[in-house]
Amino acid sequence: MYIVHSTFSVPTEKADEVISIYHNRSGLVDAAKGFIRFLLLQNEKKNGELTVHMEWETKDDFLTWVQSEDYRRIHELEKKYPDQELASIIPSIQKFKVVAE
């Protein structure tokens, strides 16, 4: 299994707005080969810190996804978000290979 975390911080007063966006996400990734699960995590001490947690069967499945047209389409939409403060946020990405369960 392969896990990817994309962590970013938003102003605390905008956290609920961003969470709402993820509640209404397109779901395009859900149909990608090897995709297992999506979670949005909120840091319980820093409400403005959010992490997108994605689980994949393999690293290759994830890499295929990030090279796909659906991936590009989703990320182009993010750049066009009306709130430019949110649209300009650059996440910190961490990638993990699961070595034990």
The CATH topology name reads: Alpha-Beta Plaits
Rounded average pLDDT: 92
- Count of individual beta strands: 4
Strands of the widest sheet, in order across it, are 2-3-1-4
End-to-end C-alpha gap: 10 Å
If classified by CATH, what would the architecture be? 2-Layer Sandwich
The tally of structural domains comes to 1
Return the structural class: alpha+beta
Overall spatial form: globular
Largest sheet: 4 strands, antiparallel
Text of the CATH class = Alpha Beta
Radius of gyration: 14 Å
Structure keywords:
Alpha-Beta Plaits; globular; four-stranded antiparallel sheet; 101 residues; monooxygenase activity; 4 helices
Task: Give an overview in words.
The protein is of the alpha+beta class and 101 residues long. The protein has one domain: Alpha-Beta Plaits. The chain has four helices and four strands. It has a four-stranded antiparallel beta sheet with strand order 2-3-1-4. The longest helix has 11 residues. It is globular. It starts with a strand and ends with a strand. The mean pLDDT is 92.
SSE arrangement:
Layout (H helix, E strand, L loop, with lengths): L1 E8 L5 H9 L11 E8 L6 E8 L2 H8 L2 H11 L4 H4 L4 E6 L4
Antiparallel strand pairs: 1-3, 1-4, 2-3
GO molecular function, one term: monooxygenase activity
Organism: Priestia iocasae
Protein name: Heme-degrading monooxygenase HmoA
Compact overview of the structure:
With 101 residues, the protein is of the alpha+beta class.
